[in-house]
Design a protein that fits this description.
single chain; 401 residues; alpha/beta; Aspartate Aminotransferase, domain 1; Aspartate Aminotransferase, domain 2; four-stranded antiparallel sheet; 14 strands; 40% helix; binds pyridoxal-5'-phosphate
Length: 401
């Protein structure tokens, strides 16, 4: 008799895929008393539950069919209008027709990879960078190279030198998080923003500007996005695709992000999205739209920035007690502090000791396209309470031994 056991044949990228290193840490969260500095999760206490409840009640009461029925792939008109207005408040004048609502900004990145790239294309990311971007690019078969960064983000001088040595157009695309990067927290200076845009024009590549954290600034003054600046730099117009999200400022559970792209890219992303999810949940979109229309996000933002600023400050204070063993860069916004262990301490080994002490962080190796710095670590101050930050850092100190 034939063997009736099914044979699964997988696509090349999924023959032996590796999952997210950060998600691997989630199993330890169930350990009683665990304090986590690992995920980039918003503080649950900062969720604006009352206003979200009002928006949710209104959404279903006032527009039940719109909530429950399929909707246009581009997104709900009211939400697109509200997000366009939000972008204007952030200094970028955007046409509603260029804004696509996505199921989280992660989907925006996936759509862009689908429509803009072919397997084997060379792309650049920051060194270090956001792991889910790395994963998406790798699974799509891209050749991912990393560009050096420092405390001010991408080192545009080093990038200029590197690009000068490559054939024109060799790099198709650069993915970056210029404002409060994940994992470094770095914010790209104005001078470098302009230099990066000029490089994109000179070497003919597109920039994906991923900006989920820009609104969470608690120090320094605001900087225009690459999208806004692209209007001012000769040849840079139409070279920036901007991604953003309500995940970090409202709630990741809404799964609402957006993508702003020039028309030729936009229409292709809409078609790509049709085969992924047809449309982002209209119910969630309606809730998000009403929340924004009520002005609730604008009212909440100062408190969020202040709250995350206080947590960051508390973590930096605690870390000053660990400066003999850990060197850190203070961020001016976002959710992360990036550190390097001194004396060649290996972050993966440190993590095992930290887990025994009931504290979690992410070893930096997850964030590198190649040649990981094994002594780097990412700490998020966003989710734990101030007391947990104090206690977690005491435990981390004990893990250093
Ligand atoms: C840099 C960056 N981009 C995108 C995302 C995903 O955001 P969303 O929830 O909108 O998909 C994250 C989440 O951690 C992030 O850090």
């Amino acid at each position: 008799m034939n063997d009736l056991t099914p044979t699964y044949r997988f696509a090349p990228a999924f023959q032996a895929p590796t999952g997210s290193a950060i998600r691997e840490l989630f199993k330890y969260l169930a350990q009683p008393g665990m304090i986590s500095f690992a995920g980039g999760y918003p503080a649950t206490g900062f969720f604006d539950q009352a206003n979200l409840q009002l928006a949710a009640d209104r959404a279903l009461r006032e527009s039940p069919v719109d909530c429950l029925q399929y909707a246009a792939t581009e997104g709900l008109p009211l939400l697109r209008e509200q997000l366009t207005a939000l972008m204007a408040r952030r200094g970028a004048q955007v046409d509603v027709a260029d804004l696509l609502v996505t199921t989280g900004s992660q989907q925006g990145l996936d759509l862009l990879i689908k429509v803009l790239l072919s397997p084997g294309d060379q792309v650049l990311v920051e060194r270090p960078t956001y792991p889910a971007a790395l994963q998406a690019l790798r699974l799509a078969g891209m050749q991912v190279h990393s560009a050096a960064t420092d405390a001010q983000g991408l080192d545009t001088d080093a990038l200029a030198e590197r690009l000068a040595g490559l054939p024109h157009g060799a790099i198709r695309l650069l993915y970056c998080v210029p404002t409060f990067a994940n994992p470094t927290g770095a914010c790209l200076s104005l001078e470098r923003r302009l230099a990066l845009l000029a490089l994109a024009a000179r070497h003919d590549f597109l920039i994906i500007e991923d900006d989920p954290y820009g609104a969470l600034r608690f120090a320094g003054s605001e900087l225009p996005s690459l999208l806004a600046l692209s209007e001012q730099v000769e040849g840079a117009r139409g070279r920036v695709v901007h991604l953003s999200s309500l995940s970090k400022v409202v709630a990741p559970g809404l799964r609402i992000g957006w993508l702003i792209a020039p028309p030729a890219v936009f229409t292709r992303c809409v078609i790509a999205k049709q085969t992924v999810d047809l449309c982002t949940s209209p119910w969630a979109q309606r809730i998000g739209a009403l929340y924004l229309q009520e002005g609730a996000l604008e009212r909440a933002l100062p408190g969020l920035a202040q709250g995350y600023g206080a947590k960051c400050q508390r973590m930096l204070e605690g870390l000053s007690g660990l400066q003999e063993v850990l060197e850190v860069s203070p961020p001016a916004g976002g959710m992360f502090i990036w550190g390097r262990c001194r004396h060649g301490v290996d972050a993966a080994t440190l993590l095992q000791r930290a887990i025994k002490q009931n504290v979690l962080f992410v070893p930096g190796s997850a964030f590198y396209a190649q040649e990981a710095d094994a002594s780097s670590i990412r700490l998020s101050f966003a989710a734990p309470s101030l007391e947990q930050i104090d206690e977690g850092l005491l435990r981390l100190g004990r893990a250093f031994g």
